[in-house]
Amino acid sequence: MSGFEGFRDTPEAPFYRSGASSPERTWAEASQRLSKVLNSATADAERGLSQMTVERICGWHRAIFLTTFELDAGRIRSDLEPIAFSVPIEIDGEMHDVPMKGTRGRSLIVEELRAACEEFNARLTSLKNREHAVEEAEGATAPAELYASILRTHPFVDGNLRAAYVALAVALTAVGLPSLEFRSALRRHDECLGWAMRADARRTIAPLTQLIVELARNVESAPDRRYP
User: CA angle, corner 18, sides to 63 and 87, nearest 5?
Assistant: First the structure.
């Protein structure tokens, strides 16, 4: 999942085969639209519109990519459309890029995405009902789980990382943490996602949560910083 920020895509990306424009135009337009979507979505979260839904995630994806691959913007993959991406996973003490492939049916994709949203909403309600202050790591866990779940489900033909990133920004705002960038820790971001997306007993969200906490602290120590 490397190349997290900059969002530069290759001509081999599936949406170019479905009528998208050139990589250069796609990158420029989608980056501009991503900035607008982030600002709008986090502003909504600051006003209390923080409930996560499948429809909102699809809406963010559509808003980002509407001018670059209209046919697939906001559309969840159909039953026969495959996914193909790789995540860094530790094997015998070394990190390896492991390909993730599959053709999950659309109903299962929607079900998994909805479950991830409902889990986040439940955790957010629990956090807001606490009588004591919530620790940073505890607050960051729910957004981290949502982010990893969206990427593990991979609901769209392409552009999953950008849609998940908007969801993460909204989720962080909802729990009182700042939006953040991963560009200063791209390799670590990918490794943390590898742990969060494992399908075995070694799966853990802790590294991703810790990374989010550390980056959030850096943002909070720079009060004049604006995103994006």
Answer: 75
Give the three-class secondary structure for 44: helix
Task: Tell me the C-alpha to C-alpha distance, in Å, between residue 193 and each of 6, 75, 144, 217.
Answer: 18, 24, 9, 20
Q: Which structure tokens are listed for 73? A: 């913007």
Q: Taking the CB of residue 201, how many other CB atoms lie within 10 A of it?
A: 6
Question: Using CA atoms, how far apart are residues 145 and 171, in angstroms rounded to an integer?
Answer: 10
Domains (range + CATH), the chain: 14-220 (1.10.3290.10)
Cβ-based neighbours of 120, under 8 Å, separated by 6 or more: 52, 142, 143, 145, 146, 171
Maximum Cα–Cα distance across the chain: 52
Count of residues making up the chain: 228
- The CB-based long-range contact list for 17-21 (8 Å cut-off, 24+ gap) reads 18/69, 18/71, 18/72, 18/157, 19/69, 19/70, 19/71, 20/68, 20/69, 20/72, 21/68, 21/69
Cβ 143 vs Cβ 171: under 8 Å = yes
How many angstroms separate the CA atoms of 163 and 155, rounded?
10
Give the C-alpha separation, 16 to 8, whole Å. 13
pTM: 0.84
Q: What is the pLDDT of residues 38-70, one digit of tens each?
A: 999 999 999 999 999 999 999 999 999 887 778
Cα(142)–Cα(92) distance, integer angstroms: 29
